[in-house]
Amino acid sequence: MTPTPFADLAQLRQAMDGIATPHREGLDVRDAAGFREQMVDRLVYSAVFGDEPLKATSRWLIRSAAPALGAFPASIHDLYSAGGQGAYAHATAPAINVRGLTYDVMRAIFRAAKSTENKIVLFEIARSEMGYTDQRPGEYATAALASAIKEGHQGPVFIQGDHFQANVGKYAKDPVAEIQAVRDLAREAIEAGFYNIDIDASTLVDISLPTLAEQQEINFRHTAELTAFIREIEPTGVTVSVGGEIGEVGKENSTVEDLHAFMEGYVPALQRAGEAAGRDLPGISKISVQTGTSHGGVPLADGSIAEVKVDFATLAALSRAARDEYGLGGAVQHGASTLPEEAFSRFAEANAIEVHLATAFQNMIYESGAFPASLKAEMYAYLAANHADERKPGQTDAQFYYTTRKKGFGPFKRRLWDLPAETRDGIMADLELRFELVMRRLGVAGTAALVNRIVTPVTVATPAPESLRMALAQ
């Protein structure tokens, strides 16, 4: 059965009777099993599809219930710092961008993590994805915490802002406004429970400049500025994991010399910001690099994906330098989900700290035998009608739909969430197996005890929304 949102706040309050009691300071969960079985499905649907008061209240209830039931938003900073100090190695965190069927996909990820005894996994969404998938930070974080509750996850939930990126075109027109937009998004995300933020000013790197230091200057300067801003607004007791980036994905491969140029500028720039703030400011915990991949892969005329040649030796050298010379967790690889299965173990061998995965899982949804052919045809017709301007000269239909179908998730979000349970279960069955395989190959299976030892919960007060305060006053 497909859940439906609550009709209104009165119906929600009635459904919670005997299960949980909200008050101005938080939520008392009296019946954990009842909350998981009777409440959380309808709450997450209300948080996504309800009216504004219902959305706000449902999101707060899930955010408040999660820690009470053993799941809490967390930063991966301390874990990556421990990796940088040699506490563990050859375990590459999968950071998964969930674009559609979000609640079901996240539940499948938690099930795969549980079956592999893994707690190193991040749920992430990029600045650009928030638009075409119609998922702002508050909604995305709520889905992650609701999924954790539903699957009985105990421990940290790492929610990450991916590619909080300076748009090069907008920056050229108004650099102050564009950096402010990234600051505003970081604030929105952190307030929602994103305690992991990847700053990406690599788009502003100018390789035409004569020296590497000059090429990276605008990148490290804005990364330091945004790191300092995040330290200013992060909750008390939380050190948000901040990532930097030295090479734009799909462009020239990064080098250890690029890393040196970035870090030798970033570290003193952050120190100066700390001096101005009157305190030491923790820096980035990882560095994203480019070693041969591209976002989404490169589709051939028949819709298959061109073979990608990742430079794993360079990745290993970058990760080693990041750890040994700067105390970071290591290097991060983007755009790798479409690589063959056997390639994933090589990220762990290279000691990459994290790998970002999106398109292959998106493809599995579209190409699942359980996915309704009629809905797929309708989504493709929408793409043809609304994104024809993105079609490149000479592109086949297969190439066009491959490169644009990520933009079908937002307009068809409700239709996807409302698919029959047996359809959604059929799609998730293959995804869950794939998540398990990836986790094992990345070396994170069996890490639950390590994570439990290093990452501990931090109580973050979350004020009840006005809609709930008014309801409690009645």
How would you describe this protein?
The protein has 474 residues and is of the alpha/beta class. The protein has helices at 9-16, 32-49, 52-68, 77-84, 102-115, 127-132, 137-150, 168-173, 175-192, 212-233, 256-277, 312-326, 344-349, 359-367, 373-386, 397-404, 413-417, 421-441, 448-454, 466-473; strands spanning 20-23, 26-29, 71-74, 93-97, 122-126, 155-165, 196-200, 241-245, 286-289, 331-333, 354-357. It has an eight-stranded parallel barrel with strand order 4-5-6-7-8-9-10-11, surrounded by six helices. The protein has a two-stranded antiparallel ribbon with strand order 1-2.
Name of the CATH first level of the largest domain: Alpha Beta
Helicity, in percent? 40-55%
For this structure, what is the CATH homologous superfamily of the largest domain? Aldolase class I
Proportion of strand residues: 5-15%
Low-confidence region ranges: none
**Strand segment tally:** 11
By secondary-structure content and strand pairing, the structural class works out as alpha/beta
Largest sheet: 8 strands, parallel, barrel
The name of the CATH architecture of the largest domain is Alpha-Beta Barrel
Query: How much is the average pLDDT?
Result: 93
Q: Which value, in Å, is the CA radius of gyration?
A: 22 Å
Distance between the termini: 33 Å
Question: Which topology of the largest domain does CATH recognise?
Answer: TIM Barrel
Number of domains: 2
Strand order of the largest sheet: 4-5-6-7-8-9-10-11
- Please work out how many helical segments DSSP would assign: 20
Shape: globular
